[in-house]
Structures are given as C-alpha cells and as structure tokens.
Amino acid sequence: MVRLYKGNELHFALELTPQATFSIEHFRKAVEEDLKDLLNQALLTIHNSEDALDLTIPGIDKGAGILQIQDITGIPKEEMLGVGDTDGDLPMLKLVGFLGCPNNASTACKTLVTSKGNNGHISVYDYAEGVVDIIRHFLES
User: Fold this and answer.
1) Domain spans of the chain?
2) Closest CA to 16 of 4, 2, 3, 26
3) Is residue 95 a contact partner of residue 77, using CB atoms and an 8 Å limit?
4) pLDDT tens column, 42-71
5) Which of 45, 67, 128, 134 has its CA 20 to 30 A from that of 3?
6) Distance (Å, rounded) from C-alpha 136 to C-alpha 141?
7) Alpha-carbon distances, residue 136 vs 81, 93, 100, 105, 115 (angstroms)
8) Which long-range contacts (CB under 8 A, 24 or more apart) does 16-24 make?
9) What digits encode the pLDDT tens for the residues 98-126?
10) Hey, which residues does 45 pair with through a beta bridge?
11) CATH code, 75-140
12) Distance CA 105, CA 57 (A)
C-alpha cells in the first residue's frame, strides 16, 4: 500500500546511463507495469525524455514550481523565461511569458514555443548548447 502525505510529495527522475542496454521505451513500459496501481488511481504521472523518466504526483510539477517562485520573489511569471524539452515541462512553459526549447525537444514543446511568436524561441542546437542559445537570444532581444 502506498500512502501519500501532503507536503511530503516527491519527484523521482530515473535516468538511463550510457551503458544501458535497453531503450527508454522499454524502461517506461517496465516501470508502468510495476506502478500500474498508482497510475490507474491517478496518483502518479510519468513523462519521459530521450534518456530519463520523471515520476511525479499530479499537481507537483514545474508549473507549480513557477508559481512558488513567483510567490517567493514577487517576479511575475509573465516576466520569467522557461526552457524545456519534454512534455513534463509543458506546465511550466504554459505559465511563463518567455519560453524556449532546444532542437531536440518534443513536438509538443516545439508547438507550444512556436505559438508564442516573438516570446518563444526554438534553438537550432540540442541540449545544453540549445539552452545557452535560448538565453543569448532573449538577452539580445
């Protein structure tokens, strides 16, 4: 039996190492099978990138983090920059005023970034190089 204690929720990231001998899809299916009871009860959400699975409790996501940062700092979310590459980043990207994604981002991320017009930027670079490009883009705008 799994018990969830409000205020003590966790977020797990399970990352494949370069030595892994199986795909992220295979890994996700195995994790989904092991955690099917939690998934069926909507007590857990799984998002994946090319090399990692993020396991979160619904409502505990990067969007909630943006709202907490806004509360703590007083910086309006509309003035924040969010950078994401997977569907797990969508709650954050939907809230911020400026958003970007590296070239290797999911289709959903790219679609959302494109919908923001001049407030969105898709880098031509992957991974960290893409993040640097996005930051430079908005600093030079």
Assistant:
1) 12-56, 75-140
2) 26
3) yes
4) 888 898 888 889 888 888 889 989 999 999
5) 67
6) 9
7) 12, 18, 11, 18, 20
8) 16/51, 16/52, 24/48, 24/49, 24/50, 24/51, 24/52, 24/53
9) 999 999 999 999 999 999 999 999 999 99
10) 56
11) 3.40.50.1000
12) 23
- Using alpha carbons, select from 11, 139, 140 the residue that is nearest to residue 81: 139
Calpha distance 61→110 (Å, rounded): 19
CB neighbour class for 102 (10 Å; exposed up to 12, middle 13-18, buried from 19): buried
Structure tokens at 121: 């930027």
Residue whose structure tokens are 């430079």: 136
Centre a 10 Å sphere on the Cβ of residue 30 and count the other Cβ atoms it contains.
12
59's enclosing H/E stretch is: none
Scan for tokens 């892994």, then name that residue. Answer: 20
Q: What's the whole-model pTM score?
A: 0.80
